[in-house]
Fold these 4 entries.
Entry 1:
Amino acid sequence: MITLGLLLHSVLSACIIADSQDQLYIFGTSKGNFEFKENNWINLNHPSVTNLNSNLLNQCFLNQYESKGYFFVDNQIQQYDFKSKAWLNPITTTGTIPKNLILDHDTLTFYGMLNNNMFFFNVPEHKDSNWIQQRQANFNHNDDMVFGFGQNHLFFLNDASLQSGQARVFVIHYAYFQPEIQTYSGPKFPQTSGQAISIPKKDNTVPLSFAFIPNDFSSIYLINTEIGTNTTVQLPSPPIKDSRSKFVARTDSLVQLTSDFEVFSLNLENAGAGWLKLSNNGLNLKSTDAGNSPQGSGNNQSPSSVKNSADVLKNGSGLVLSSILFMAPLLNTIFHTLI
């Protein structure tokens, strides 16, 4: 029997990531980790990270220099080497991990906000496992603020004091909150909650732009942060408006993973062609397969049937699952009220 708590965790836990060669992977399912290769999803047949920290808005990050993946499992950072297809020794952190994190491309340092202060954790020099407080913000930060990265700067959107098309800026290498508000020309992105996905560069230099995806999927905004440019371009929304979707960027495309494990891609060099659905061959998963088994147990059995999101909703179990997902927030509130 799947408990309500487990089901709530499962729809949040899997994540999609691309390595330094633009190869796609999905980590954190109960049936293993998968690599997208020659139009098929291949099970990597090694222990899966199934307890990804669902308190975080994003749980997996790319070290582009070394083609490593960093995965937050509780207070540990699990390290995966994409070149050797092997897990490395984990890194343990202490203290509260900020809910919204950015990995700086050049220094491999994680940044996040807690109690209106910037905190950081440097991966290569983790002699001290503590998150270190660095600087107090010059604005009132909240967990719903969008946190983007480009040009060695952090960009904060969804601030009530900002107008459409504006951002607040933190300069990483000087540990400095810029007093001036940054304004962008072009289509005006709204001040609303959403996701910000940094776009890696083919030459492995620092990214210059990030995609802002509002939670209402009204549009997507590609924000160019290059000094002296500061422009935006509007892109088409993904075909599936799934609030539990995870996104990742390759050097030439933006990729969506839905909670039903459908994968869509938008070519950033030809966005007018719209979103394309990638093959699901070998990825025989549905929302309940997102991290249900104990951490590190590894389930390398091949799933026995293929079901897309429409099939799940057509049969009886799919209707029950959809009803539970729809009612979960209400049931959770009632449960906590009773106890």
Entry 2:
Amino acid sequence: MHPPLPQQTQGPPIGGPHPGAAGLPPNTRLMEKQGARVLCIADVRGSLRSLNELAKQANADYIIHTGDFGFYDSSSLDRIADKTLRHVALYSPLLSETQRKIIQATSPPGMTIKQRLQQSNEPFMLSELPLFLEKQYTLDVPVYTVWGACEDVRVLEKFRSAEYKIDKLHIIDESSSRLLDVGGVKLRLLGLGGAVVMHKLFDNGEGKTTIAGGQGTMWTTVLQMGELIDTANRVYDPMETRIFVTHASPARDGLLNQLSITLKADFSISGGLHFRYGSSYNEFSVNPTYDAYRGKLAASKASFNDVWETVKGEVQPAIAQNQIQQTYLDNTLAFVDKMPSSANAGSPFGGPAAGAASSAADEAAFKNQWNFNLADAAFGYLILEIENGRVATEMRAQGFNFSHR
């Protein structure tokens, strides 16, 4: 059983940013432009200078990034568990082959991986973030990112409190969205970072605020989901095009899938699967029937309810005196309740069998909400080219090497 999220003794008006939250108000228009190219990439893993290189290569005006950004500073190594460090090292573009071997090798008794790294003669860097914090390097174009599954919660708390700041870097999360007004399209960016892990949804880990994480890993919570719904509702404008940016893929997680519907998202953009090709799909294209789709949602709902029944005796008293957290919890419970409980018949989004009007609305979401899952930044990217009210796409991938055949 996991402890409930920490109490908030004081807070903003319901739905407002957390105390000390950095960034612009949720409905702030950041940019206006006649046309634009938006580069969408995943998993730069601390290689922040590559953002500028990729922007030039793609002739991009903006970047959307889907997590595992490299939110590590010079003190992060001490907080990362050895298991997580091995995973980070496996994919890191910044470590030498010698450093990788040190991390992957079994440590002698009484010696940690970190001690072995300190004995090596090579400088060790998990991320170029400190170089950007010190202004040795700068970002050429605005970057909008969520955090991923492997980041340092302490670093993200420092960004939220504005202790850390990098020009042109915008973290989109449950408490703040961003609006790009480009090419005749108003793009509303809504974001949710971290992994979706059922047994951690009510666990804040080492987080001192409402950002959940610990030992170099990050995950999302029910309160973050509930606050994101609140933020999205407050800034809702039917004239906007909504993009839901996540680290985890809504195609693989029923909760995120239902959340994207609740947010009225037109597109979702996600990463985190480490593919060499990106994918583009809607639910209609990958599910043979509504019932198949309902089955995915129903399984996710059942898993969530199992956890909720286990922890609600602790969670409910803990937040009973905090109206803000109660509202966020209620938002999440409400959208989960709308998920189907079985794969059989009725509306694809739960409830009684749909009439003509609701069936049309369900079918529109089932067919028209489009999802993009990105290849890792080292292997490919997606471009959204926006002009004259139209959102066109280009997808590029390095792909597999078949020369051995």
Entry 3:
Amino acid sequence: MWFEIICGLVIYSLYKLFFSDDDDVLDVETSDSTALFAVADRLSKLYDGAKVYVGLRIPDADTSSPQPIDLVLLNKGEAVVIAVKNLSGFVSVKPDGSWVSESLSKHKVDHHPDPLAETKRQASILESYLEQRGLDLPQGYLSCKVILSNPKVWYVLTLDPYIVSSSTIQSSSFPSEIITYDQWVQMKPEPKSMLSGWMKGAFRGGKKEMQDSIHQKLDFILSTAPMWDRLELKGNKYVLGEFLEFKGKQEDVQALRHIKRSKISRLVVQKTSMLGFAPTRLQVLYARRDYRSEGTSTSDWQEASVRSSTEVVFQLDNSSKVRKFKLSSISSMSLSA
């Protein structure tokens, strides 16, 4: 019996060693960043032909520091600054507009500034940034919304836990700029022939069509605006933050020495395995940054071969935490200019 148990432990250890490289993913909370990309993907489907910019860092002249913005939706005739709140558990709204969230699983209480006021402030900073880059938007063109993306959230009016059940907030009790999860999942793509509907009521507000030239200028500015670096991990998970460096064997770090944000815009990690075993080496394809064109042709990609144990050192967005990710857990990495 003991022999079977020992053999089982050995086999499990070998499996973890050769087949499981998701430890880095499990060690980091990726839910907030992943929620941003999930919302962005759904918005692009709800708005035919629209563009969604994720993880902007807009310079703020008043504070001399970048202002993070979750999403900016650019559609014909409008742009919307969107804050995505991936809160779970009980969310209480205080009289001053601030929110308090209590996680049921972690038993943790967090305080949040008024999300709508914060998003309006971000929209104002973005508008000033656009003016600095030579684009004056039509009055009322830029709006803001807050989307509550987590289904596991309950809204209450009071912080008293003993009367939660008698003080539940209805979706209609929120300002129209706040889209609750129930409203979010009910949104449907509106037919082009319709002039009203969920999308019109929740986002558009009857704004006029803007000129194509303004749309093109805004698209260019947002496409070249500072953004967080992003990691796409296995399992369709994302992490936003700042790439710092590679760690590993000297020859591997040397092979990746050309991957710097001033030169490289994106890298892709390719895995090749033999006889079903996890690869000991990885192929890293990276594309040089080209400010003259939007795409990168296949011939522009360069290649480096490194050990799978090589790590990416990454500082998480809005946090002082620095984490290491094995290249084997990464699908791709995009670097902001």
Entry 4:
Amino acid sequence: MTSSPSYEDLADWDDLNLLIAEVEEDDPNDPRRLDPRPLPADIVHLNKSISELEEKIAELRLERDRLQGERALIARLPPEILSRIFELGVDYSLELLPTLNLVSRRWRDVTLSCPVLWSYIVLDSEWGWRVPAFLRKLRAHLDRSQAAKLFVDIDLRYVDGTNDAQIIMSELKPHLPRCYTFNISVPEWTRMRIVQEHASELGPALEDLYLRIDSSDMDMETPFSVLTQPCPRLTHVVLEHTPLECVNVAMPALRQLYLLRDQRCHSSSRIVYSFKDLMNIATASPLKWFSVRSAIFSSDTTEEIFRSTPVLSELPNLRGLSFDVVDSASISLFLESTSLPVLGLLSVYSGEDLHWLTRISLSPQQFPSLRLLDLRNFNFSGAGLVPFVRALHQLPQLTGLGLTQPAPGIVGSRFFELFAEGPDVMGQWLLPRLEALCMQGCADISGHELLRVVNARRSAADDEVANISFLKLSQCYLLDPEVLERLASLVHTVRSL
């Protein structure tokens, strides 16, 4: 998420997988392509000669490559530049480091003299159940990284038992003060406790934190803070199936906060977060982006929100807000309890209940900067379209609208007709400043309805009606190619995915 939301952020739900057609490959054992008869002697002789020539060609190519390598321009690069190139490559792909060590003696000397290359420590499925080998790798990286900041990504679900987890964390403990990224996944609270016991020095250099607990009996455990020191540089936090109590420390630089139920498996259950604890974290940091998935907010009667005239919690820096599979009541609670003066993007996947949107339309002064609205799993059929349109009439400042995966499968033609009709029918234009329309997973979109909206707004006599300048259409499989070409000639930016 960038600091400033853009039209590209609309209708861009990452859990909707694009359907990719499989490429058929020729089967070498296809009986239609085989000849069961033995080869003639002359063909056997020719095949043998071809094999010998191919081996000779391969040898010549190797010799040619060796000679070219000796005079290659890259061999003249000074070690400082070469090491920087290596840094960029390893940062993009960690698997590159072993390859760099095997190219030549000079390249290996360069890699060994560059501490940053050895600052990435990752335990994933590739190293699962190979703890002795991982420990050798871990010690080598810790030694060769010297004083460089560490990137630590440890998945203790691939470790057999708590003893191995103890050993790994003991090796890491003296070096955690220089850790800037700390990603930890554990199967249960017992191993998270091991992490906490060895992470007492973590915090001063920490910038990015990811915590995940697989345990399904989270409500039966007493949460504890994994962090014990203030984190003055921490800007990005992801808590997956992890309570807020696990980060009960000062985070004065926090910019992005993600709360997830479980993104590795699909489940209808939701995790409960204390709304009071969430507000304490949000108001104590310059939060710019907040995203919550598969969650419910809880509250107790002592909170400010139950007063007759509650004081709103101001989030002066929040620019992007996303609710993914969150009930309408929890969304309304958040919006009714906060002041969001610079909120630019609101993405919501809550089902067909649009009470939260009605709440926004009744107090638009709380959202003066709202420009982009992104909806998923909505229902505009029948009477469901009425509250939505009424709410949009109260939000004329919107410039971008995203619609994804409607509940009945279709958006409906009436929706687009309302955007094409002017003051003679509607009394005023619906969203007069609208510049962007983005659709994802809408089965009935052919392009003709969008073309009508684009033409109607281009021909409007009212100068206050903006032209549609951005269209994004993803997984709309009934889209007419000819209409899409026509839209491309009228709209500045058209993306079809």
